[in-house]
Amino acid sequence: MANVINHPSRFLHLAISLIILIIFLIPLITFLNNNSLIFTIITKPYFSYYLTSFNNQSHQSHYPWRFSWRNTFINSLEFEGNVNYPSSSSSSNYSNDVSRAISPDFTKCGPVDLPPNAITSPYCCPTLATPFKFIDFKDYIINATYKYKNNSSIRVRRAAHLVDDEFIAKLEKGIAIMKSLPNDDPRNFIQQAKVHCAYCNGGYPQKHPFQDQKIDVHRSWLFFPFHRFYIYFFERILGTLIGDPSFALPYWNWDSIQGMQIPSYFTTPNSSLYHKLRHYKHMPPHLVDLNYDILSPKIRTQDQQISYNLAFMYKQMVLANTKELFMGSPYRLGDPAQPGPGSVELAPHNTIHDWLGAVDTPNHEDMGTFYTAARDPIFYAHHSNVDRLWELWTKLEGGRRDYRDDPNWLDSKFFFYDENLNLVRVKVSIIVKRPRKLRSKEEKEQEEEVLVIEVTELQSYENVKFDVHIDDDEDMLSDENHAEFVGTFVSLPHGNHGHKSNTRFMVGISKVLENLEAEEDDHIVVTLVPMIGKGDVTIGRINIQFMSK
Ligand code: C2O
């Protein structure tokens, strides 16, 4: 009898304990031992978003990323952004605004600022020819394209983990040749690394009267364009040294699952791609932590690391949905350096630098600090991927706007040695594609080639005037006597306060291009020089149209 009475209560007791166990204990144990269950639920949306939007599309295994100089330096084939003169928050004087682009005084290169216990000397300056001379990028590229007419304009950068042995051999050979060149040859590997050192650690002063400010290409809107140009010339030098004009750098695809470790051929001793000063624990197959914390590195399973990395990429790429957030803050002539970095520059860019630098060097040299970073051959594959992310970002969700509408950004300038040992001055500029070139005499008689500039949000109560130049030298703009000066846009005050209108400026350029001997060119460089005016005027699309006579 007692048994019969006791039995149900004991059963109840057991059942309740079991329920408690199920409710609290199992999830707790799961969480403590392996929190990936909870983790996966939280990050799943990011995870799949990043995978579908970045890795299943255009640039993974099936489609190498197509890279062409035309869509890099800025503006590509057609100009579709807007150019604002000036931004309403800045100075009310047009000319001031336009001339505030950063440009190093290249002849005044000096010793750089080094971190304590640096392992190299502070002299990163290239040797310069006297008298100082350079060529402009547009002249350089016209010659370069002309020289290798058929195959040099498009270089296809491929993911570093997907290249074949033949490619690896070329890359190894190119780096080996660069390392073997005389020390003072600008194409020498260490000389190339010093270019980065000089631009990153304050080797160049800004132009007069701001010579007290040292230029730094990090932590601002210069980050993406500087490094794009830098690896662009590195790539061309390497290609020329191995006799392959279509050579393209590999990109270390650390944002894809298969690419999250150091490509193994960078770690083979005796290879020119091997580098001693790297974190010994991070050799393949160790996975990179895109959000690496150098002071307290995390221990994770491979699956966890992959999930974290993809979720992190989503945040840095997709959530950074304005130009300031992604590209960093504006940085103009006279400004102190490092106004603020963009998302990807901070991480994964900086974090991977940290992750790779050696543990027993004072400042995690070489990759872990900028003055030595480019001495590691993997630097260029790392930056090739950073460059690719810029390109991807501008196309996200129907297209995002970078700084192409800011004249100061467009006018920022840098100097690099090219594959022919010429010093080239590059700038981020407005390049307009010509839909047709080398037209016959009859064609020219029938149709005029017309430069069309959309002018929007013109404030009708203000005087507005800007001059238009083609293929001109920005530092010495031509006046009305010269062919480069093609025309001017002028608007007198009329209408009411607050009324805005849209119009367009047109100028025929067939004859101009003949005079400039530019009829063969694929593109023209357009410079707008605001002369007077307050308030906003927005320059819209700039293109070339053919209009019948
Ligand atoms: Cu100028 Cu990855 O740094």
UniProtKB/TrEMBL annotation:
InterPro entries: Di-copper_centre_dom_sf, Hemocyanin/hexamerin, Polyphenol_oxidase_C, Tyrosinase/Hemocyanin, Tyrosinase_Cu-bd. Gene3D superfamilies: Di-copper center containing domain from catechol oxidase (1.10.1280.10). GO terms for molecular function: catechol oxidase activity; metal ion binding. It comes from the Eukaryota. The keyword Transmembrane applies. Residues 376-387 form the Tyrosinase copper-binding domain. Keywords: Copper, Membrane, Metal-binding, Thioether bond, Transmembrane, Transmembrane helix. The chain crosses the membrane at residues 12-32. Signal peptide: none annotated. PANTHER family: SHKT DOMAIN-CONTAINING PROTEIN, TYROSINASE FAMILY MEMBER. This is Tyrosinase copper-binding domain-containing protein. It comes from Arachis hypogaea.
